[in-house]
Amino acid sequence: MRTIVAFTAALSSTLCVGNASALFVMMDDFGLPAPAETLADDVGGGATSSVAQIVTPSGFSRTFSHELTLGDFRRGNFASIGSTTFPAGALEVANTSGHDAEVRIMWNISAEYLAAYPAAQFGVYLYETDGNPVSMSMSIGATSLGKVNLPTRFPAFPAANPVLFPTFDAAQMAAINAGGALTMTLNGAEGWDLSLDAAGFQVPEPTSLALVGLALISAGATSRR
Fold this sequence. Notes:
With 225 residues, this protein is of the alpha+beta class.
């Protein structure tokens, strides 16, 4: 019974530490030297406008694409990394009235990228939206990492906390640590606009992991006594 109680106490402290203290590992801040990279698919019907470049600060290769799915090309319908307007250094998507586009960001991440962490959640910092619903889905290779609906809000600056996916399960963590093409897909209701800043992973802080280890050691010592 003492062993069970001690282990339960250690597990409880582990969960509290994990929930209370987290680290955001930024993979891409969407900042570029001027001018910004701006894409506009003016064909539609499955055509995609894309560019490839190096990610900052992670150094991974990134592909950025824009596909018009509704309406004809018109000025103001675009996607931009580095941002053409406020806020600077962001991913900005603009769809004029009667238009819709799918935007994809693909990072070629290295193997064992999150191997140091027992758990992780993908997250982005949201600057602003125009109020239209927008969904964001993630995958790595053939493995889905889930889908979330972004909040419809209008802050002047990013909120204190990122918009997060549910915590990855063991299979998803294994797929991420195998490396490969990590893809973020954005789409929304007709005319959707948004600005995002910083994409990455929220993970337990190293100090939290150390406290977890101490708690488990303490549990072991208590059980021996």
